[in-house]
């Protein structure tokens, strides 16, 4: 069978669903109400930011929330509010987006990059334990691809060593661990509303936390050092203006009503894809498994591990030509020279290194298609990576 890259007929010619989806009626109505009110800033007396923050905090089981301009700033503010200072160390996973580490640098701390579980690719409690020093102040689990990290194991390590836990839940809106929503399982959790995320206003973020004192400290970091309920021109601490706008909150607030339905749609696609991949002779590709304790995977990504030797660059080009574009995924954080030059420290991370060679992703927008179209993914993979053939640039 001739690959589309070589002039053959592609597996799929129709476009995948666009992201974000069109505005629904509730979003359009609320956005227009905010625009017409003229109360666009979070401090002008509107209610959208406050309503979004309260609703999201409730859903996360956290009690308190602070809406911010993006999740990188949210991670920074959470760290600072929880007492992480210049020179402290924060342990982050080796397989994650660069912002998990740059937020630590922004807080003046040192990212210490620890390896991930070789199966599910989430931060490994044993690797965290091995990375702890006398300067370690916090752990940053990442709920990668919409599935929850093993929070019981990581919280146990943190408790033994008196460390704070900041959950990077940027990709995990609606995910749950042992029946509990992520974000509210550590000292603070941070969500993203960037353009690719399950809820988006183009940009934006939200911090949730359980303790009132932590909320007040994080709120102060995000509001120019003011004291919650204090004077407008009183600045007892150093802080920044990191606030979300009312317009962004108006885009996001109605989304909470449809989030579960959209997660179920992605889950159905992922389940169908997993069934189809299991039927390919030789099983050259599998879905990266969910971590222990997963009770709700929000499926921000469908991570796929390729088990046969392959030319990665050519494989991605061939899949795109078949109409099924895949993402190459993250490099190990420890190989990002800008981070190490800025002071980040990384040990040997073989699981993350293997993932960077073997794991590819299907993006969230594609998972919003009808589950029957998971067959396109399966057919394209079976065409590009037939069982028993180590297809490379030379053999294709």
Task: Give your account of this protein's structure.
With about 400 residues, the chain is an alpha/beta fold. The protein has 2 domains: about 130 residues, Aspartate Aminotransferase, domain 1 (Alpha-Beta Complex); about 230 residues, Aspartate Aminotransferase, domain 2 (3-Layer(aba) Sandwich), CATH 3.40.640. Helices cover about 35% and strands about 15% of the residues. An 8-stranded mixed beta sheet has the order 1-9-8-5-4-2-3-13, sandwiched between helices. A 3-stranded antiparallel beta sheet has the order 7-6-11, with no helix packed on it.
The helicity comes to 25-40%
Name of the CATH homologous superfamily of the largest domain: Type I PLP-dependent aspartate aminotransferase-like (Major domain)
* Number of discrete helical segments: 14
Class of the largest domain in CATH?
A: Alpha Beta
Beta percentage is: 5-15%
Task: Give the SSE order as H and E letters.
Answer: HHEHEHEHEHEEEEEHHHEEEHHEHEHH
Write a compact overview of the structure shown.
It contains 14 helices and 14 strands.
């Amino acid at each position: 069978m001739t690959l589309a890259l070589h002039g053959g007929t592609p597996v799929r010619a129709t476009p995948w669903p666009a992201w974000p989806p069109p505005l629904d009626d509730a979003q359009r109505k609320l956005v227009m109400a905010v625009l017409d009110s003229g109360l666009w800033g979070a401090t002008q007396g509107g209610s959208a930011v406050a309503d979004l923050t309260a609703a999201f905090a409730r859903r996360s089981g956290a009690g308190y929330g602070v809406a911010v301009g993006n999740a990188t700033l949210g991670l920074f503010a959470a760290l600072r509010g929880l007492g992480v200072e210049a020179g402290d160390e924060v342990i982050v996973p080796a397989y994650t987006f660069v912002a998990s580490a740059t937020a630590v640098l922004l807080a003046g701390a040192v990212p210490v990059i620890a390896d991930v579980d070789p199966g599910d690719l989430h931060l490994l409690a044993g690797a965290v334990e091995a990375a702890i020093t006398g300067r370690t102040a916090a752990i940053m689990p990442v709920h990668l691809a919409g599935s929850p990290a093993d929070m019981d194991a990581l919280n146990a390590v943190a408790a033994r060593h008196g460390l704070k836990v900041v959950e990077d839940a940027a990709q995990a809106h609606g995910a749950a661990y042992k029946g509990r929503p992520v974000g509210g399982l550590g000292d603070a959790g941070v969500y993203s509303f960037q353009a690719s995320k399950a809820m988006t206003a183009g940009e934006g973020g939200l911090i949730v936390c359980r303790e009132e004192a932590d909320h007040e400290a994080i709120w102060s970091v995000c509001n120019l050092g003011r004291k919650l309920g204090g004077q407008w021109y009183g600045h007892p601490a150093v802080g920044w203006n990191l606030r979300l706008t009312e317009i962004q909150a108006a885009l996001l607030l109605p989304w909470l009503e449809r989030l579960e339905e959209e997660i179920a749609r992605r889950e159905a696609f992922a389940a169908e894809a997993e069934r189809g991949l299991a039927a390919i002779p030789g099983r050259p590709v599998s879905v990266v498994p969910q971590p222990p304790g997963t009770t709700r995977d929000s499926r921000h990504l469908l991570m796929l591990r390729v088990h046969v030797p392959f030319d990665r660059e050519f494989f991605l080009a061939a899949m795109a030509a078949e109409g099924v574009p895949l993402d190459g995924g993250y490099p190990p954080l420890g190989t990002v020279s800008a981070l190490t030059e800025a002071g980040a420290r990384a040990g040997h991370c073989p699981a993350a290194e293997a993932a960077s060679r073997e794991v590819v992703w299907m993006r969230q927008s594609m998972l919003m298609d009808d589950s029957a179209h998971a067959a396109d993914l399966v057919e394209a993979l079976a065409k590009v990576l037939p069982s028993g053939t180590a297809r490379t640039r030379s053999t294709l």
